């Protein structure tokens, strides 16, 4: 298994590597410069000594042999024919005038040879290379020590500042591990780390919100499926019983006709329930992109025309303000259509009046649907908005989803639906919508 390292360690290691490369390159350059400078210093010493020796070469023999060189320098004066006139105990080889190098008895020397114009001789003066090498070695050791300290300091600073740079990521990792969804922006002073941490926090927030929405959707779907299965199973069971009776018995025509009528009603109930379930599911799956600007007055006219064809003999009147709202056109039509159908089918209404007005408390709209039917008891006015729930006075079968769809659409538009008493004698359904923009009033 490949070993992993923390980002902080990697930053420190990268800093150390970079510092090492820079220090080594500078060290080589400085070492070469030191070597050249020390050699130049050695040459200056020889030049200075030559300025003293050459004018006094004729008398140098009086003291050179006596004092010796003790390994610190060497001097040799030769005639034009190459004969040694005078020399220190360390005798230098014959060399051409100028700078040169020589090795005597295993010791390397730096040599400067100059002409002695008075006696026509050549004077060579030398010092051991070890002098320059010793100074160079000492200075190189100092460079190495400084380089090691620089690399160590850079590594420590890389560790320190690397820790600050990755701190948002470390804190984010801790929050993710403990599933902390209450995230707040962090600032380390390092732009890339802050941007990465902010992106990760945003992603985690989106994942958390999606997870919450998915959990809620699954819970709703489980409840929805269980209740829907129960509601559909009941008419299907009745249909199966009727079919078995028809199959097993030879019934008189009137009884057979009655059973067939029950089958038709049960089939209609199943079809109605499935249709309402489809509409309910579409409402739950709607999103912001499905919302468009809707003219509520025009929707009221369309719903009234549809109701007159669906329920012949029922009078539908409208008093609508011309309002525009951002919403779901199909959902609003469904709300009004279900309200009229519920009033006619279960309340026995013959007159339904729809009033559309701007909301007084918010920038919204209010639908008021009055009917002259039997009304809804106060004890049922909340229950009837729940799925598969019917009022206590209901005599005709239905899916129990009509008013649940009304409540759903009201909630999707930021409002609510509720019942009160109607001045027409029946029930008044009030549906509020938010964020409507009034453009005029029509009677």
Number of domains: 3
Kindly identify the CATH topology of the largest domain. Answer: Heat Shock Protein 90
| CATH class label of the largest domain | Alpha Beta
Largest sheet: 7 strands, mixed
Proportion in helices: 40-55%
Spell out the helices and strands N to C.
HHEEEEEHHHEHEHEEHEEE
Number of helices: 8
Concise summary:
It is built from eight helices and twelve strands.
Describe this structure in words.
The chain is an alpha+beta fold. It folds into three domains: 7-150, Beta-Lactamase, CATH 3.30.450.20; 181-285, Helix Hairpins (Orthogonal Bundle); 288-441, 2-Layer Sandwich (Heat Shock Protein 90). The protein is 54% helix and 19% strand. It contains eight helices and twelve strands. It has helices at 7-53, 61-67, 129-177, 191-248, 253-284, 296-310, 329-347, 402-412; strands at 74-78, 84-87, 98-104, 107-116, 121-128, 292-295, 315-327, 351-358, 364-371, 417-421, 427-434, 436-441. The strands form two sheets. Strands 6, 7, 8, 9, 10, 11 and 12 form a seven-stranded mixed beta sheet that branches. The longest helix is centred in the middle third of the chain and has 58 residues, at 191-248. It starts with 6 loop residues before the first helix and ends with a strand. Mean pLDDT is 77; it is low at 436-443.
